[in-house]
From TrEMBL, chain A:
Organism, scientific name: Hyphodiscus hymeniophilus
Keyword Protease in record: no
A UniProt-annotated Pfam family: Coq4
GO cellular component, one term: extrinsic component of mitochondrial inner membrane
Keywords linked to the UniProt accession: Lyase, Membrane, Metal-binding, Mitochondrion, Mitochondrion inner membrane, Ubiquinone biosynthesis, Zinc
Swiss-Prot/TrEMBL cofactor(s): Zn(2+)
Name of this protein: 4-hydroxy-3-methoxy-5-polyprenylbenzoate decarboxylase
Protein's cellular compartments: Mitochondrion inner membrane
Catalytic activity: a 4-hydroxy-3-methoxy-5-(all-trans-polyprenyl)benzoate + H(+) = a 2-methoxy-6-(all-trans-polyprenyl)phenol + CO2
Bilayer topology annotation: Peripheral membrane protein
From TrEMBL, chain B:
Domain of life: Eukaryota
CDD domains: AdoMet_MTases
InterPro entries tied to this protein: SAM-dependent_MTases_sf (IPR029063), UbiE/COQ5_MeTrFase (IPR004033), UbiE/COQ5_MeTrFase_CS (IPR023576)
Annotated metabolic or biological route of this protein: Cofactor biosynthesis; ubiquinone biosynthesis
Record's protein name: 2-methoxy-6-polyprenyl-1,4-benzoquinol methylase, mitochondrial
Gene: COQ5
């Protein structure tokens, strides 16, 4: 939403903090879909306020109906990140020395820039090894994430892109798997930590989960996410490229994150227990012709 | 928009074929990075691809990319974009052609050619009209499209009709600008619905249409055109440029293709200019030369190939 202030005198009277937070909005002018301004970076599509609202609502509804549509989650994130939230995240990066270095260097994490073989070769207590091991265990690869399109400020677009690319590292750090349950738990953690609205909205996927999974969320993973997300340092400020050889436990302690109970383990045990119960029931039935 | 790579839909289509090897991930979005399209050099002939200027040789590949991507969600998207009105347009188009009509009963069949008819919308309507209304079971149609995915979609749809494996319907992959396998003076009816806008060289396509039609044959074109009422035009443009790419993103996961679509509508010659192009190709265009639909959002253009004076 553009905070449209016509008079320079009004702008000058505002406190500096508010100005910083709403920086770009003050510079953007209203436009219509028929005369979009030039893009601020390659791939940028400037949207009007109504379009952004439509995109946010449409993405939210459609991605709830079809959670495989990762592109809609991405666009939901971008459409809801302004006016305040992405600026807050960028300012959080600016307040931290490592964050400032990341913003200056603009490193990218993708299948092109990461050498998984090298990460696998590291000792098994390291962050890099934990990441490669998580990729292997889940059977996924270091994807190339889709590019940010709808965020107007060029620096904030990079912050969003960085957040998107770090997502798998958060997975590796916490050990949460890629099943819906794991993703929702991680999103809850990300919401408590980064405050991006999309991460909070993703928790609505709970409505699509099984009752046992929901119960696990409310008793184990939800409280874990809130406690660790709020209590830890900003995970966006981790310069992952420099942390590969570091001990994972040490990084977790430094950030203030504790590893949650292994979700795959719980699910496996749950499945085994249910199988035993089913077999017992079947055998009991067989006793009665 | 001009900086957006439109080769991405093509590469994404290729990636979809390979994607089945990877496990499905919730909440994550990954895309193959596409290379940026080449800029046309000064001495290459250029044309427009939406609002972008591209080398002529490139346009065909990029249109192919767009339509490979939209093939499966084509009809759903058409319904969303036109609020279902495209069905009324197509019904009216076919009725106004009145195919299969003849002085004999049962009629000596019409030989029809539907260009850019991939998904079969028009072709099936034409055959139904011939069979049910004009008692013309001898009428046949060839559905032609440059894009195999769209044609495959048409073949799938044809299985739901009674024409599926009959001699009345066949499919042809061909470029409308070079219909090499269609003999001259061989078809009674040449239709193109919402296709000619995407052709690299419309004049060439019109000349080919002229060539393959029999003398006395009918050329009929249904295409987006210029809205006559300024108020409706203002609303229509905002719908086109605001809502349609958004629906494309939400339903078909492809904003770029639908942005191309609305830009190509904008660039297409309007009613009078297109009628003149049809006349220039040699057709006889009776009366005003076109019929506006829904205030000019779409228009039907017709032309007759004149009988040669002996």
């Amino acid at each position: 939403m553009a905070v449209f202030l016509r008079q320079h005198s009004v702008r000058a009277a505002l406190p500096r903090e508010l100005l910083t937070t709403c920086t770009l909005s003050l510079n953007s002018r209203r436009f219509s879909v028929l005369n979009r301004p030039a893009p601020n970076y390659p791939g940028h599509v400037p949207l009007t306020r109504i379009e952004k609202a439509g995109l946010a609502i449409g993405s939210a509804v459609m991605s709830l109906l079809n959670p495989y549509r990762g592109d809609l989650i991405a666009s939901l994130g971008e459409a809801t990140a302004t006016p305040y939230f992405i600026y807050r995240l960028r300012d959080a990066m600016l307040s931290d020395p490592t964050g400032r270095r990341i913003l200056r260097d603009r490193p990218r994490l993708s299948s092109k820039t990461l050498s998984i073989d090298y990460l696998r070769s590291l000792p098994d207590n390291t962050v890099g090894w934990a990441y490669a091991d998580w990729l292997d265990r889940e059977g996924v690869s270091a994807d190339t994430r889709s590019e940010v399109q709808y965020i107007d400020d060029e620096e904030c677009a990079y912050v969003m892109q960085r957040y998107r690319e770090c997502h798998d590292f958060f997975h590796a750090l916490t050990g949460l798997p890629i099943v819906v349950e794991g993703e929702v738990a991680l999103k809850a953690f990300e919401f408590a930590n980064t405050l991006l609205p999309m991460t909070g909205l993703s928790v609505f996927a709970l409505t699509r989960m099984k009752p046992a999974e929901r119960k696990r969320f409310f008793t184990i993973y939800g409280p874990w996410a809130v406690k660790n997300g709020l209590g830890s340092k900003e995970v966006i400020n981790v310069y992952w490229e420099e942390q590969f050889e570091r001990d994972a436990g040490e990084l977790r302690t430094e950030l203030g994150i504790e590893k949650p109970v292994d979700l795959r383990d719980i699910r496996k045990k749950e499945r085994a227990r249910r199988k035993v119960e089913r077999d017992a029931k079947k055998n009991a039935h067989n006793g009665y012709p | 928009m001009p900086s957006r790579s439109a080769l991405r839909p093509l590469l994404r289509f290729v990636k979809l074929q390979l994607a089945s090897s990877q496990p499905q991930r919730y909440f994550s979005s990954t895309v193959l990075k596409a290379e940026s399209p080449s800029q046309p050099t000064n001495h290459e002939r250029t044309t427009h691809f939406g609002f972008e200027t591209v080398a002529e040789a490139e346009k065909e590949a990029r249109v192919a990319g767009v339509f490979s991507n939209v093939a499966s969600s084509y009809d759903t998207m058409n319904d969303f974009m036109s609020l279902g009105i495209h069905r009324l347009w197509k019904d009216h188009f076919v009725r106004s052609i009145n195919p299969g009509i003849s002085s004999t009963s049962p009629s000596t069949g019409w030989k029809m050619l539907d260009i850019a008819g991939g998904t079969g919308d028009i072709a099936f309507r034409l055959l139904d009209h011939c069979t049910n209304i004009n008692n013309s079971p001898q009428s046949t149609i060839t559905i032609s499209d440059i894009n195999p995915s769209m044609l495959a979609e048409g073949q799938k749809r044809s299985l739901q009709t009674s024409y599926a494996n009959s001699p009345r319907l066949d499919f042809l992959v061909a470029n409308a600008e070079h219909l090499d396998t269609v003999p001259s003076n061989s078809v009674d009816l040449y239709t193109v619905a919402f296709g000619i806008r995407n052709f690299t060289n419309k004049e060439q396509a019109l000349r080919e249409a002229y060539r393959v039609l029999k003398p006395g044959g009918l050329f009929a074109c249904l295409e987006f055109s210029g809205v006559t009422n300024p108020l409706l035009d203002a609303m229509y443009k905002r719908w086109s440029f605001g809502v349609i790419p958004l629906i494309g993103q939400l339903v078909a996961a492809d904003r770029a293709s639908y942005q191309y679509l609305v830009e190509s509508i904008e660039k297409f010659p309007k009613q009078q200019q297109f009628r003149d192009m049809i006349r220039d190709a040699g057709f006889m265009v009776p009366g005003k030369g076109w019929e506006d639909l829904t205030g000019g959002i779409a228009a039907i253009h017709k032309g007759i190939k004149p009988v040669e004076k002996s």
